[in-house]
């Protein structure tokens, strides 16, 4: 039943190009920021019992009609953090020593995490394919985190991601329509 509701709420952006969607996204996210901040705060205070289930459905429906290869905005204007396991796995794949991989591609950020030295990501191919897709960082596989459990615990990240990821933006807007009268 929730699936049908969510499908019904899908607002298709098919008529405008991904380029135009991405151009408008920061402005649209800024316009909605106060409303979204309040909504997510209410969600955090009183998360519905079926939140994980609803988020899973919203995420699946949204990504059924989202072509990440047309977008790749997350690889262009933000980047993942690299865990030690990511560094070992990717450096092995590239046949580099982990230290060499770190020196060539990563830097330490203000939170002491390994992040990309430069953006767009050095592993983003010209056709928006990830050149290390099979071994990409865990953070890339999980982005935009809209299907994670206890979604209400990452509100600060969600508010940032809705200005980067058109799918995350749509998911949050659909959440508002679906849940607002229950919070
Ligand atoms: S996850 Fe979001 S930002 Fe990244 S490519 Fe897909 S739609 Fe674009
Ligand atoms: S590693 Fe791949 S998926 Fe991750 S940011 Fe780079 S190109 Fe994108």
Structure overview:
Among the domains are: 52-62 and 143-183, no CATH class; 81-138, no CATH class. α1 packs across α3 and α3 (51-64) crosses α10. It has 183 residues and is mainly α. The model is unreliable at 7-11 (pLDDT under 50). The chain is globular, with a radius of gyration of 18 Å. A hairpin with a 5-residue loop joins β2 and β3 (114-116). The protein has helices at residues 2-9, 18-45, 51-64, 68-71, 73-77, 84-93, 98-105, 138-142, 155-161, 166-179, and strands at residues 81-82, 106-108, 114-116. The chain contains ten helices and three strands; from the N terminus they run αααααβααββααα. A three-stranded antiparallel beta sheet has the order 1-3-2. Residues 66, 68, 71-74, 143-144, 164-167 line the site of one iron/sulfur cluster.
Q: Which small molecules are bound?
A: iron/sulfur cluster
Global shape? globular
The ordered H/E elements are HHHHHEHHEEHHH
β-strand percent reads under 5%
Summarize the biggest pleated sheet.
Answer: 3 strands, antiparallel
List the uncertain runs: 7-11
Mean pLDDT: 91
Q: What is the radius of gyration computed over CA atoms, rounded to a whole number of angstroms?
A: 18 Å
Reading side by side through the largest sheet, how are the strands ordered? 1-3-2
Extended strand count: 3
Terminal residue distance: 19 Å
Question: What is the overall number of helices?
Answer: 10
- Percent helix among the residues? 55-70%
Counting helices, strands and paired strands, the structural category is mainly alpha
């Amino acid at each position: 039943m929730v699936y049908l509701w969510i499908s019904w709420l899908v607002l298709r952006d098919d008529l405008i190009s991904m380029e135009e969607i991405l151009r408008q996204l920061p402005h649209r996210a800024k316009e909605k920021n106060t409303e979204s901040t309040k909504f997510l705060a209410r969600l955090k205070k009183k998360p519905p019992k079926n939140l994980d289930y609803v988020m899973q459905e919203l995420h699946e429906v949204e990504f059924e009609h989202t072509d990440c290869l047309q977008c790749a905005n997350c690889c262009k204007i933000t980047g993942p953090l690299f865990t030690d396991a990511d560094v070992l796995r990717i450096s092995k794949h590239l046949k580099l020593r982990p230290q060499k991989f770190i020196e060539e591609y990563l830097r330490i950020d203000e939170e002491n995490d390994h992040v990309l030295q430069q953006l767009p990501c050095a592993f983003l191919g010209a056709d928006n394919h990830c050149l290390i897709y099979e071994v990409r960082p865990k953070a890339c596989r999980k982005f935009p985190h809209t299907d994670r459990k206890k979604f209400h615990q990452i509100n600060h990240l969600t508010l940032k991601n809705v200005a980067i990821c058109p799918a995350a933006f749509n998911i949050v807007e659909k959440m508002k329509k679906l849940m607002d009268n229950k919070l």
